[in-house]
Description:
There is one protein chain. The chain has strands spanning 2-3, 7-9, 24-31, 49-51, 56-65, 74-81, 95-98, 102-104, 119-126, 144-146, 151-161, 164-165, 169-176, 187-190, 194-196, 211-218, 236-238, 243-252, 261-268. The chain is mainly β. It folds into 3 domains: 2-81, Immunoglobulins (Immunoglobulin-like); 95-176, Immunoglobulin-like; 187-268, Immunoglobulin-like. A hairpin with an 8-residue loop joins strand 18 and strand 19. The radius of gyration is 35 Å and the shape is rod-shaped. It starts with a strand and ends with a strand.
Amino acid sequence: MALIGTSVTLDGSNSSAANNKTLSYRWTLTSTPYGSMAALSSATDPTPTFTADVAGTYAAKLVVSDGTTDSAPAFAKVTAVAASTAPVADAGTNQLVANGAVVTLDGSGSSDPGNLALTYTWLLLSKPPGSAATLSSAIVAKPTFTADVPGTYVASLVVTVGTAKSATVSVAVTSNATPVAVAGADQAVKKGAVVILDGSASTDANNDTLTYRWELLKRPFDSVTVLSSSTAAKPSFTADVSGDYAITLVVNDGTIDSDMVMVKVTATAN
């Protein structure tokens, strides 16, 4: 089946001779719909074409010869129809990926009411500043690109069948960088001092809001101190016993944890 106005390719290339002799081809367009001006691009090519210019059925005949003997005729029929409804593009769902990941876009959910073959046209509409990302192909159902910079990438898709074109649809891909936890510098304080920790210098390349997860990993023997909060940017604790305190920090951007970092506080007696 083909759409009116599209080029149709006939294919006799699978024809063969038992003696492996070179074949010659003889195509004939035996019937066309009323009013059609269709003509074969070649009568002797293995894969000639013609334009289905009118709705209806086109019939072609092929005879091959090995130079001595003609084959029995083989026949092909092509029905040309009008595009009653435009195809529908489907660019897939939005994606969240790790920075540096190879992203596969998916337009395979696109469809045509007449179940005709689709032509794909992808475009990378926008990408984060500094990105060198390019599509592996603009005309396949599932192109890829590398999310080389944190941020949001937007791709658009249009599918066509003959001259019928879908509406443009788009899909967003967000490249999520791993946040970086910063727990501040090591501190030396006097016994009994209130120590303020500071994770506010922690960063996220996507500018996502960070949550904090502090843990008092180590404290001197006999210490009963606790953190004022395990989730604040700047929690505190009292260095109630002389010795070393080790505190860890992990930040999260809503999806990914940072690497764990540690800060050390040493308390000395007055």
